[in-house]
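seq:
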Amino acid sequence: MSNDNPPQNLRSMFERRSLKWPITLGVIMIVLVVALTVGWILLIVSNLVQEKGTAPLYWTLLTVGTTFLVLVLVGVVMYLSLSVKEINLNRRQSNFMDAVTHELKSPIASLKLYLQTLHRRQVSEEEQANFHRYMLEDVERLDDLINHLLDAAKLSKPANDSEMEDLQLAELLPRWVEELRVRYRIQEGAVRVQVEPSVVRARSVDLAMIFRNVIDNAFKYASDPAEIEVISHVNEEDHVVTLIKDNGTGIPRRLRRKIFHRFFRMGVELQREKPGTGLGLYIVDTLVRRMKGRIRVRDRDDGTGTIFEITLRGQSFPSPVEVD
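struct:
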């Protein structure tokens, strides 16, 4: 199998938005301006000879000229909108490059330091064990970064129906929560999982990416001490509704749509303390939409924090399962 596909996918993901529409719109506007100018000239000429029976031509040219003027104004507004979107995309791409550079440089520098220390001097068994644990964490951080890039690159590929299966959230959600709790070293009492048995038809890898990314964010941005809740139930419309709650600082209302944009992260990239690339929630939103579901963000009713509400098509089973 050729190894060219992943780089090509990544290159296509990082390409700037196509300039086809702005260029086409610009050409159309130029043509309209030229036509408008010619029309107004003809209008002036016809006005001069209006007494000679050219009134119909006058009103025709006036109507066409006014229409062209309106189209030019609309084109200017659209062109401005496209330009603003392009600027925002370039800014997010710049933030993404800063994030990737930081995410690559930090664990590599850490691994290099630990390896040099182990090579140059003798350390105790306890220090060796700590070094190995820290190096494993750095490797996992690099692995997460690479997986995010590859997952984002794969989003352009259509889902294969043969890969769809019935997945039980009552079995999967507690497992994913526990894996991330251990990873972030959060006490068991700080995490509450209440899952009503339900089944969702999806690809297992897609469902894992959706919930692991959102739950990972909940642990990552929770305050100290952390308070995390994962609650899932089936509503009257046979949709599985899952709430992931944290006790962090929350997300401003004006940014709740932007956080699902590709490469978007809040704040200044080089001043952040939390790792990330701005791709996690973009992947989540894309997959949820592909599964005909929806995701929304709101504040907690009981104190500070954020609630991510994920709604997917599914079916329920008899009795609830609670894990504390």
